[in-house]
Every structure is written in structure tokens, then in C-alpha cells.
Amino acid sequence: MREEFREHFRRSKEEIDKILANCIFIFDTNVLLRLFRYKQRTADEIVEILEKLRPRIWLPFQVGLEYNKNRHEKLRENDKICRSINEAIIKCSDELKKMSAISNDLGLHPLAEIEADLSHLIDELTKVQARVQEAMEDHSSEEYFEKLHERIGAVFSGAVGADFSEPELATIFATGATRYEKQIGPGYADAKAKRSSGAGDREVYGDLIIWNEMIEFAKRAQRPVIFVTEDTKEDWWLRKGGKTIGPRPELRREFFEQTGQEIHFYQIKRFVEYSKEKISGEVSQETVDDVARQRPAFRDWAEVFNVLRHVLPENAGTAPHQGMDGSANRLLYKHLLRKKGQLVWDKMIIEKKLQEFMDDKTASDLEEEENVEFLFENSDRIREINREIAAVDEKILPLRRVVEGQ
């Protein structure tokens, strides 16, 4: 049975090792663009891994196209983030200085000796802000990004696929429309969002183009493939109970039927860990930690704004917070909003996990004791968060009107 339905069985370590022994590593666009997000040491070490793997790496033409189209945006994003951090440090330092001045008149707390700590914190923030400012002025991120771009170009020299012809692309687009209607991946998960933003067929069906390129490559090379991607959407990955199991079974079957070869997916974290174990023991733990950093699960900024939309209370109270001046009121108000924002964020993550869990289950599955326990546990946590949000709202409401009027 395992042979007939291999795509429905989790691969053993031995099976994955067999793929790794002879595979070609193929990289997604997001993996290349993420190199511009990492610390310099991390990016350098990953490029060094690619250089050592050079006979065994390959890049779909569509990936190269998307990478070169979007890499310039990374420079603008990096500069914007640095400026925002610099401004945030300055604002935080200024706010603390105001609070420190207030404490000179009123005192901070009768039982807490924190004046010295506050002064030390202000000094440290001033030093950090100076280092950030110096880095922005003395080190050109544009120059660094250009050198990194040149290294990426060199490592994939001679290892990029040929583009499909116009008739071949037209066939992929037509096939893609049918596949996406039936929710057959890859690429259907964000197709509507791309189309609504004005994207053309090449962008809407970009993932499907990459998929077809990998199939055609494996046919020619007769080698198994490890696809390294940071895409976590359900049109690539199979998820059960909130956990990622592996490549979607229908994609595994399609790839094997068309090529006679196996395909497996790695996220960049697992690829770096594998490289540290098997390719280069010189990969630092700092690099492993850098690529493993947790990132928001939201797919786009619209979802982030949806979080923020729920943070501010709809109806504000009118009573001022007695015994505090404007600066203290604003500081407390911002703290409460941040706390509520985190609670709303946590709630949305749990709700998203529950939705994915429900999507993967039949009615009979939901009657199993393990699944019932999972549902009750997470539902209880949502109710608990709702109570915490209500408690924070009670503190926010009396502050909002007075703060907005100051």
C-alpha cells in the first residue's frame, strides 16, 4: 500500500537521506530576497553554502525574474526601517526624559529606588541612537546590497533555467485557472489577492510557473529535488492539527508521475541546519538563530492593519485620569494600547490555527478525543484573552478622551 500511495505517508529519515544524497537544490524567490534581510554574517555564510553546493543548485527562470524585479525594494525597505528605528529611539528617549523631569517634582514611587536606573536607561538609549545614526551615515546599505547581488548572480551563473515560450505560458495560465478553481496548488491561496491588486497572469500564476519549471528540470536531469522555500501557505504544504506535515500529497504524486523522481520541501532554517551538519561545519550558530527568528504569520499588510483596527476602543469615556499630567497620561495610554494590541494579535493567531485545524478535519475526525481536547483548550484560551482585553478596555476608556484632548 505504501508504494501505491507513497504521497500519503510521511517520509522516514532514511528516505529523506536518500533524496539528499543525490538531489538538486532549487530555491524560491523569497529565499533569495530574504538574504537582504539577514545580518551580513548570515547572508555571507548562506552564500558560501551555495558556493560549495554549486554543482547541485538550480534556479527557475521565474525565480530569477521575480528576484531581479523586487530586489531594489529591499534597499528602500531597509533604509525605511533604519530611519523608523532611529526615530523610535529618539521618541522613547524624549518621553523618558519628560517622565524623569516629572519625577524630580513628584517622585516616581515611595518604595522603589529606580531613579538611577531610569537615568542609566536614558544614557544607554542616547548611545544606541548615536550608533544607529553613525551606521546610517557611514555605511552604505546600497553598496553592500549591490555586492551581495553580484555574489548571488555569480553563484547561479550557468544554473538558471530557460523561460517558457509564449504558447507554453498561455497553456500554464489556462491550466492554472482550472487548477485554482479546484484549489489545486501551488499558487491558488493568494491568486485572488494578486488579481485584485492589478497583477498580470505572469504574477498571478508565478508559483505554478515555478512548479512546471521544476518538473521539466527533473525530467531532464533525472535527479530528485529539494525545493527550498519560505512560502508557508497551504497550497504548498499539508497541515494537520496546526502542524506542517510536508509537501501536499497531490503535489508529491504529480511530481513523481511526471518525472519518476521525488520532491521534498525545506524551509531555509532546515536547509541551513542540514548544511551545518553535512556541508560546512563552519556555519555559525548565530546564522542558524538568525534564520530561525519568528516572523508574523500574516500574509500581507492588510491583515496587520486589520489588527490595528481592533486595538482602539470604539467608545471613549470622559473622566480624566486624576493625579497625572499630560505626559504621564499619554505614556500609560500607549502602554495599554500596546498590551491590547498584543492580546488581539495572540487571539488572531489562535483563531487562525483553529480555522486551519477545522479545514483539515471531517465531522467524524472532530469526535476523536484528541481533537476535542485541542478544540476546547484553544477555545478556552480565546475566552481568557477576551476577558483580558475587556479588563484593559476598562482602563483605556477613561484615558482616551483626556489624552486626545491634550
Written account of the structure:
The structure is a single chain. This protein folds into two domains: 6-74 and 147-291, no CATH class; 301-404. Helices cover 65% and strands 6% of the residues. The chain contains 16 helices and six strands. The strands form two sheets. Strands 2-1-3-6 form a four-stranded parallel sheet. Strands 4-5 form a two-stranded antiparallel ribbon. Strand 4 and strand 5 (243-247) form a beta hairpin.
List keywords for this structure.
single chain, 406 residues, mainly alpha, 4-stranded parallel β-sheet, globular
Strand content: 5-15%
Number of helices: 16
Helix content: 55-70%
Question: What is the N-to-C order of secondary-structure elements (H for helix, E for strand)?
Answer: HEHHEHHHHHHHEEEHEHHHHH
Strand order across the biggest sheet?
Answer: 2-1-3-6
The general outline is globular
Quick one: how many beta strands? 6
Number of domains: 2
Outline of the structure:
The protein has two domains: 6-74 and 147-291, no CATH class; 301-404. It has helices spanning 13-22, 29-34, 40-52, 61-106, 115-138, 141-155, 166-181, 191-196, 201-204, 206-221, 249-259, 268-278, 285-291, 301-309, 326-359, 369-404, and strands at 24-27, 57-58, 225-228, 237-240, 243-247, 263-266.
